[in-house]
Amino acid sequence: MAKYQREVMSRRGVVDIVNDIGIDVTISTEKVVEGITVIDGHFRSPHAFLFPDQMPGPVGWAHFRAFFPRQAAPMCIHLAGTGDHSYVRRDIGLVKDLLKHGIGAILVQNPFYGDRKPPNQFRSSLENVSDLFVMGGALISECNLLINWAQQRGHGPFCISGISMGGFMASLAATNALQPVSVVPILSWTTASPAYTRGAIAPAVKFQKLQAQLEDRSYVEKLKRIPNVDWIEQMHELSAKTGDTLAVSLMCVLMDHFTCLSNYPTPLDTSLCHAIVAENDQYVLRTGAPHFEDVWPGMTVEVIPGVGHITGYFLKHSNFRQRIAQLLERQIRSEGSAPPQEIISK
């Protein structure tokens, strides 16, 4: 995974590999509901094709639901947040209203979620730390494959968005797009490291298990043998600096390596990137992490005053929809094409 991140994902090379593999999209059901074509489909994840051991069984099959307006339309891929195992929340909170204004949608099931959940996994609790990194790598390839698929059906331009964990994944997916895409990461930030080591979800991480592994010399030696990384050295340096346990320090090192946007390409047009964050977010911490506008110069960040992570999620969906629509409208105008119908801008 580290080699693939270094040699492919960090060089905007995922789409070329996806095209070389030639994955076929299978349509399971297709129906028209009030003028909207609703498609349920699936395909073998390109990441699973490359690394079958990382995505065994159902994990390796990407499932999605697409909503296509009657005319060619701008589209938004909405990625799932933590605990979102179905399409219902995103359909009600985001898709329905945007469809009224001519914006289509594709909802993707995250790896390790929904139909893709391993049989022994308890709810949303990933069995391995590395599963989160696999999820990110897989969604980069899956989102860009779906963009190409929808584009072949005559739709576009495209936005990638998500809330909380879905926002992190949306940002990662956008880094490897070979065309300008709008990006709206919501209630997320530039790295998942603070969220999993210091945020409100940190107590759910099995640090004791990781600490026990670090006391196993063979495990440590295995990590040391991974070429072109110095995670163990970074772990000890960080632990000495912060006083955190080795487990917390290693988690911080790994999260920054695989999720920090500084380690990935910048989207082709950052003027189409707009992050929405909650002022009092205790889940996704921003202190100590790179600022979005430093990592992606030219983008914008909107802080919702007076709300936290949970209140922002439940109360601000209209704001999220508005920003998605505004960016797609900006993209349409910059590309010189007229929208199929007026897109909401207020």
Automatic annotation (TrEMBL):
Domain of life, per UniProt, equals: Eukaryota
**A Pfam family name for this chain?**
ABHD18
Name this protein carries in UniProt = Uncharacterized protein
